[in-house]
Design a protein that fits this description.
Distance between the termini: 95 Å
Order of helices and strands: HHEHHEEHEHE
Number of helices: 6
Strand order of the largest sheet: 2-3-1-4-5
Strand content: 5-15%
Helix content: 40-55%
CATH topology of the largest domain: Alpha-Beta Plaits
Number of domains: 2
Largest sheet: 5 strands, mixed
Radius of gyration: 26 Å
Structural class: alpha+beta
Shape: elongated
Number of strands: 5
CATH superfamily of the largest domain: Reverse transcriptase/Diguanylate cyclase domain
Length: 228
């Protein structure tokens, strides 16, 4: 009887150890799975260079804000959408190399992200272009926010480039209208950006919804030191 009892206790101890080991193995596998899933989410939503949201994530965010604007239409909550382009960025790559260009682009992305309010959004839209989404921003507030970003980039220190080199950005911005397709908003922001380039770069241009012809805004003077 005692021997049987001892055998049962031994088997229970072995079984308990086996179960504990199995739980530990499962926890390790779950941890590795969570890490792998997080990496997949990063690959799907983050730009590998700047670590900003990528184009896909930016468009998803824009569609989400569009739906929110539609649901809150009665509250009059404006959403501004902007396109930011680094001026003459090809010259940086051609003159100083792609590694220096990549580092400079990362610094621009970091500066844009750090300069936005909580709840605003910036993502890399492609190449040297970024998408802005500014919540609760009417025309004046949106223009001021874009100007703040432009000045922030102009003041950036870029160790990978000559001391006197200054990157500049052009910004085209507009307001998203409730029930408007996001493609229409982006097209209008792109028109504003095109006008900013035509005005000499290092400029913010606001194109109001429903505007036609030349966008209405006061261009800012471009920087003489930039060499652009």
């Amino acid at each position: 009887m005692i021997l049987t009892y001892a055998l049962v206790i031994t088997m229970l101890c072995l079984l308990g150890g086996f179960i504990a080991g199995l739980r530990h193995t499962l926890r390790q596998r779950n941890a590795r799975l969570e890490i792998a899933l997080a990496e997949l989410r990063d690959l799907a939503t983050l730009d590998p260079l700047t670590r900003l949201p990528n184009r896909r994530a930016a468009l998803e965010q824009l569609n989400s804000q569009s739906e929110k604007a539609h649901s809150q239409r009665a509250e009059g909550t404006p959403v501004a959408v902007g396109l930011v382009d680094v001026d003459l960025f090809k010259q940086v790559n051609d003159t100083y190399g792609h590694q220096a260009g990549d580092m400079a682009l990362c610094r621009v992305g970091d500066a844009l992200r750090a300069s936005l309010r909580q709840g605003d959004f910036v993502g890399r839209f492609g190449g040297e272009e970024f998408l802005l989404i500014l919540n609760n921003s009417g025309p004046e507030a949106a223009h001021q926010a874009a100007e703040r970003l432009r000045e922030t980039v102009l003041d950036l220190q870029l160790p990978e480039l000559p001391d006197d080199y200054r990157l500049t950005i052009s910004v085209g911005i507009t307001l998203h209208i409730a029930d408007e397709p996001v493609e229409s908003t982006l097209f209008r922001a792109d028109q504003a950006l095109y006008e900013a380039k035509n005005r000499g770069r290092n400029t913010t241009v606001l194109l109001p919804p429903g505007a036609s012809g030349t966008p209405t805004s006061t261009p800012t003077p471009h920087c003489e030191k930039s060499g652009h």
